[in-house]
Sequence to fold (542 residues):
Amino acid sequence: MSDAKRRTAEAAYDVVVVGAGFSGLYMLHKMRSRGYSVRVYEAGDGVGGTWYWNRYPGARVDIESQEYSYSFDETLELEWEWTERYASQPELLKYINHVADRFDLRRDVQLNTRVTAARYDEATKRWAVTSDRGDKVTAKFVVMATGCLSVPKDPDLPGLKSFKGKSYHTGRWPHEGVDFTGQRVAVIGTGSSAIQSIPQIAKQAAHLTVFQRTPNFSLPAQNGPVNQAVVEDWKANRETYRQRQRTSGFGSILIKDNQPLAADVAENERKRLYEDAWGVGGFCLLGTFSDLILDKAANDTAAEFVREKIRGIVKDPQTAEKLLPTNHPIMTKRPCVDIGYFETYNRDNVTLVDLQATPIEEITATGIRTSAAEYTVDSIVLAIGFDAMTGALFNIDIRGRGNLSLKEKWHGGPRTYLGLMVAGFPNLFTVTGPGSPSVLSNMIVAIEQHVNWIGDCISYLSDRQMGAIEASEDAENEWVSHVNEVGDTTLYPLANSWYVGANVPGKPRVFMPYIGGFGVYCAKCDEVAAKGYEGFELTGAA
Ligand code: NA7
Fold:
């Protein structure tokens, strides 16, 4: 019998992991190397998660490549050579496939399999996990490595089904790519995915029309081939840099900590610092002053600097004016990092439609009709985003003690302890779940910290022959209050962002990630573990 068949027949694992992206694969590696039986289920037909699905033109990471890579294996880190400062999606996919091969991970990953339900049995203290392929297995521990931005938002556009051309969601891009040569193309949305893909699509299409509902802040990546001196320095000092990531505010050393307050720096000097950071590129500018996300007046200085840049880049003043983000402070909606985004509007074959002035009324058989005009197009690119942070968890019927469903428990918004566990759901972990720094940090660093913590927690229980761990209601309530309190000291709640669920109709408005600082959060997790998992209830074997 093949190894895969034997394992399915066995149908009882120590750990079931849902998702084979960066978190699921590292979770598998960690637990298997400690001798646990692990099964990973993955809906796609390949590994890579976010970087498997998001294949739209121009897709790339907006954290510098060496920072956005695993640190758990020194040889892996020293051997791997990134080619660009910000790795493109194909290169990231190559990297994660290399990791899967290098650590022989594929034999425990079952592809093309979507987990549909996970139910906790209080008598056996085990989870029953079922899939759309008929798998029925049990596991002592379940790790949801389902990703924060993995469920595309429903295209809530009237008439879309009647469109006779082709439409593509950026998060479900065809593997064979799309050739837009000679086509009239519409892009709906101006978030990260749109801002990355628009310059690429504009180079190919006969005409590109961008439908913008909310103008967005975007910073130039200043991408290019990797600088060998930077790479060598990183490799020589990797321990120091990795440690700095783990104690930093955002899990990245490019965004500096302990900076002055904006008001303490004279205007000329402030502008010079912004100019320098703009030249460095990426998110660097967001770390110029320590109060940019705390104080509206400080934030205004950065926002106005970026608006001034947009006015300078975009030649047509009317188009420039439409592109200026004015309805939210910078950073409060996911800031974007681009390569030639604003410059693209200087092309003759690109038109910007302001949906605030002229909203979309309908998608017709031949194009898009706004309140002012009809635009005939051959293809529509839906860069409209995701049901962030909770969408993928709600797609699985997760039921804890007393048949409590996660959806019911979270009807008013997600409630977790440390973004790692949920009261009522023993032995179920979420990687980069709501209530953890997650999407407000360098995801790879956040993933490693979570996987390490979960792995150590499972080992702790095993070493003591314990049956279950569960967040206590009190600890969860306190943590949720703390997450909200910290969120409310910032400007984040001011924007209608996906951080607060505002992009999905009917979703409760709750600021989901934890913004107390990545390093602060890590210290809290370590302290909880050191105190014998304070705030958790640990119980004996079944
Ligand atoms: P985002 O950041 O959620 O952006 C989605 C964009 O689509 C945003 O500009 C939305 O405008 C717009 N949108 C959404 N629905 C509509 C409708 N119905 N009509 C017009 N415009 C619409 O998703 P992305 O995929 O770009 O980025 C997701 C994350 O992936 C990103 O932050 C990175 O972490 C990687 P709105 O702002 O809601 O007015």
Remarks:
- The chain has a mean pLDDT of 96.
- Residues 160-382 form one domain.
- DSSP finds 17 helices and 20 strands in the chain.
